[in-house]
């Protein structure tokens, strides 16, 4: 098994060295760095205390919340197929910490930096039979060292967008040893399978298993009670829930909402910023006032439905989509990428989003199915107003688009079970020969 290159190791060390300085100006980087420093110690301490050498251990890693939800649906299915296994879970982003705390796993923590010493220490302490990376967050040092020890390496929910920087030089050359270490990869679609092979995964180890996120969102919707308090904020009026928004999204939303209310005064908007910091919330207040809208009400103080509700906490968006009769998904105006469109689709509501959606397979599926509308960016507020008003005025058309959205979700179910079956095969098979 080829090791990582000196170039990759140099870049990994440089990143770990610069993280404290970057953390001084980027709170998220700083929080992650502080937690990562002690992660290896905490996971090794758990292994000393609770690792059962008789039971197989599966180590799942997912970068953030989206990848974590995909991994969760697979690990729950794996629990059913291999009930004896222990599961350790690591993540990279601080935003995934609340999810990691609620997962049904024996140990959960941050992933240390991808350097030889912490990788060797954790592989020695945890002694996993299987190392699983979710989506594409594969770390070459950890993967190659796990493979060299006889640990099977796998990818689930694997997807590679056509424009991924990983496919270009020098990233492709630097990351190739890690992908070459993969023993089984479950790709979301056939195109992803082709691009995984381009990254270095042996083609005969790739199968198309689908996207476990469909199972995750469907299960989450099914688990929400009809008397869930959050759902009351959308009852009795046409309500658009705008999730994971950034300032460009909010500029279009608030301008369109001001015009919509002049024609449909009963319409409501629930705004869920991606980062509900105090500064961001104050900026929304100012923009709403400039547009002549009613003062936004924070969900932390709201007791009843209001025209403009702003969510000032995290972790409620997936449920809040169920309060809407239509949805807007943010991220389609920036470089970070469009956020999850499957969550509102699972609630049977139609979706609208910004122009930068082409790296989202889910958005493409909804557009092709007549369940979504994409703004082209030339006059987003006017375009959004036309779509929004059409859905308000024509409830039948809106309901039909929402039903198509849910149908697309239902067609994607079963990926978690297929992915877990692939992992169970690796656990039951002899260690791969390297």
* Low-pLDDT sequence parts: none
Using the alpha-carbon principal axes, give the shape: globular
For the CA atoms, what is the radius of gyration?
Answer: 23 Å
Structural class: alpha/beta
CATH architecture of the largest domain: 3-Layer(aba) Sandwich
Strands across the major sheet, in which order?
A: 3-2-1-4-5-6-7
Number of domains: 2
CATH superfamily annotation of the largest domain: 3-Deoxy-D-manno-octulosonic-acid transferase, N-terminal domain
Cα-to-Cα separation, first versus last residue: 6 Å
Approximate strand percentage: 5-15%
Mean pLDDT: 93
The percentage helix is: 40-55%
- Main β sheet profile: 7 strands, parallel
- Give the count of helical stretches: 18
* Main CATH class of the largest domain: Alpha Beta
CATH-defined topology of the largest domain: Rossmann fold
What is the count of β-strands? 14
Which descriptors would you attach to this protein?
alpha/beta; Rossmann fold; 47% helix; seven-stranded parallel β-sheet; single chain; 15% strand; 434 residues
How would you summarize the topology of this molecule?
Layout: H1 6-23, H2 27-37, H3 39-50, E1 57-62, H4 65-81, E2 86-91, H5 97-102, E3 107-110, H6 116-126, E4 130-134, H7 140-148, E5 152-158, H8 171-180, E6 184-187, H9 190-199, E7 206-208, H10 213-222, E8 239-245, H11 247-263, E9 268-273, H12 278-290, E10 297-298, E11 308-310, H13 317-320, E12 326-329, H14 342-346, E13 351-353, H15 361-368, E14 372-374, H16 380-393, H17 395-411, H18 415-428
Parallel strand pairs: 1-2, 1-4, 2-3, 4-5, 5-6, 6-7, 8-9, 8-12, 9-11, 10-11, 12-13, 13-14
Helix pairs in contact: 1-2, 3-6, 4-10, 4-18, 6-7, 7-8, 11-12, 11-16, 16-17
């Amino acid at each position: 098994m080829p090791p990582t290159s000196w170039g990759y190791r140099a870049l990994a060390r440089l990143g770990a060295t610069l993280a404290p300085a970057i953390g001084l100006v980027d709170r998220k980087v700083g929080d992650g760095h502080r937690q990562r420093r002690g992660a290896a110690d905490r996971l090794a301490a758990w292994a000393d205390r609770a690792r059962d050498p008789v039971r197989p251990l599966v180590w799942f890693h997912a970068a953030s919340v989206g990848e974590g939800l995909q991994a969760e649906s697979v690990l729950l299915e794996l629990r059913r197929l291999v009930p004896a296994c222990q599961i350790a879970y690591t993540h990279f982003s601080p935003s995934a910490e609340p999810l990691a705390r609620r997962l049904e796993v024996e140990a959960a923590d941050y992933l240390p930096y991808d350097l030889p010493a912490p990788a060797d220490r954790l592989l020695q302490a945890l002694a996993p039979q299987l190392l699983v990376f979710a989506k594409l967050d594969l770390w070459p040092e950890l993967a190659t060292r796990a493979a060299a020890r006889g640990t099977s390496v796998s990818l689930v929910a694997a997807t590679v967008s056509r424009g991924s920087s990983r496919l270009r030089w020098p990233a492709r050359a630097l990351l190739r040893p890690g992908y070459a270490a993969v023993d089984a990869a479950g790709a979301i679609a056939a195109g992803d399978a082709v691009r995984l092979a381009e990254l270095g995964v042996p083609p005969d180890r790739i199968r198309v298993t689908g996207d476990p996120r469909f199972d995750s969102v469907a299960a989450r919707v099914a688990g929400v009670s009809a008397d869930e308090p959050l759902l009351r904020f959308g009852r009795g009026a046409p309500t658009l829930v705008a999730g994971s928004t950034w300032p460009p999204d909010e500029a279009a939303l608030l301008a369109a909402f001001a015009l919509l209310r002049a024609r449909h005064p009963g319409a409501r908007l629930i705004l869920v910023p991606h980062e509900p910091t105090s500064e961001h919330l104050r900026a929304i207040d100012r923009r709403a006032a400039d547009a002549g809208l009613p003062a936004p009400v924070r969900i932390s103080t709201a007791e009843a439905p209001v025209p403009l509700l702003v969510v000032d906490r995290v972790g409620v968006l997936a449920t809040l989509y169920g309060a809407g009769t239509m949805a807007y998904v943010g991220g389609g105006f920036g470089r970070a990428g469009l956020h999850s469109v499957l969550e509102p689709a699972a609630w049977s509501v139609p979706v609208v989003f910004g122009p930068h959606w082409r790296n989202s397979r889910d958005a493409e599926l909804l557009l092709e199915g007549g369940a979504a509308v994409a703004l082209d960016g030339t006059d987003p507020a006017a375009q959004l107003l036309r779509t929004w008003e059409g859905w308000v005025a024509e409830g039948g058309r809106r309901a039909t688009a929402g039903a198509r959205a849910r149908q697309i979700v239902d067609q994607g179910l079963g990926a978690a079970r297929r992915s877990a079956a692939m992992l169970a095969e690796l656990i039951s098979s002899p260690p791969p020969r390297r």
